[in-house]
Amino acid sequence: MTFPAARQPRIAIVDYGAGNTRSVYNAVRTLGYAKITVTADEDALATADAVILPGVGAFETCITNLRAKRLDEILFDATDGRRVPLLGICVGMQLLATTGEENGLHDGLGWIPGRVVRMASNADLRVPHVGWNTVVADPDQALFSRTPQDASFYFDHSYEYICDHADDEIAHCDYGKPVVAAVARDNVFGVQFHPEKSQKSGLKLLRGFFNMVSEC
């Protein structure tokens, strides 16, 4: 399904050398959106109606790449200045935290206070946490408005997000204990799983995000 041009939000997928941008692009395109750009250009990000911050790899590398391109400042202007909705995916979610402990202690963006720490492993729980897991979401959260309760999503991570404020956690999964699966504060959202790899559930979550964009 393709939406009329007048109803098309301008969607920017941030290209900072640390994300699976093509997979995210293809997933968004599948939903019928056409005004999609994979970019690190300041002007493109300044005019976007929605921003997706993907992430694959180590926290240290991702935050270093982001800052080297001044994208931390550019994205702050978009999200805090223009109130553009932003969705962080996997490490893109983790970068929203205050600090990350992968390969040493590093400052994150600090937009949703918390810390990213190594997941504990034991004989029954292997790290990294890879594969499908049921996600229990806050039923009042618009991000999950299109997905059924207890939908499953695809995870691939070794570090987990510990929120400073419980209200910022909007979904969790069970991996020997509750693990934060999604966070939100105002117009900034993050998911630990990969919606672009989560088939119908992932597409429905992305649709929920873009529905919020249309309502803004």
Give the structure's gist in a few sentences.
The protein is an alpha/beta fold and 216 residues long. 26% of the residues lie in helices and 29% in strands.
- Alpha-beta content class: alpha/beta
Shape category? globular
How are the strands of the largest sheet arranged?
2-1-3-4-13-12-11-8-9
- How many E-type strands? 13
What summary fits the major beta sheet? 9 strands, mixed
Helix percent band = 25-40%
Number of helices: 6
- Unreliable runs, pLDDT <50, ≥5 residues? none
Distance between the termini: 22 Å
Mean pLDDT over the full residue set: 93
What is the beta-strand fraction?
25-35%
Using only CA atoms, what is the Rg? 16 Å
Which sequence of SSEs, written as H and E, runs from N to C?
A: EHEHEHHEHEEEEEEEEEH
Fill in the keyword field for this structure:
216 residues, 13 strands, 4-stranded mixed beta sheet, alpha/beta, 26% helix, single chain
Spell out the blueprint of helices and strands.
Layout: E1 11-14, H1 21-30, E2 36-39, H2 42-46, E3 50-53, H3 59-68, H4 71-81, E4 86-89, H5 91-94, E5 99-100, E6 106-107, E7 114-118, E8 129-137, E9 152-157, E10 159-163, E11 169-174, E12 178-185, E13 188-191, H6 199-215
Parallel strand pairs: 1-2, 1-3, 3-4, 4-13, 5-7
Antiparallel strand pairs: 5-6, 7-10, 8-9, 8-11, 11-12, 12-13
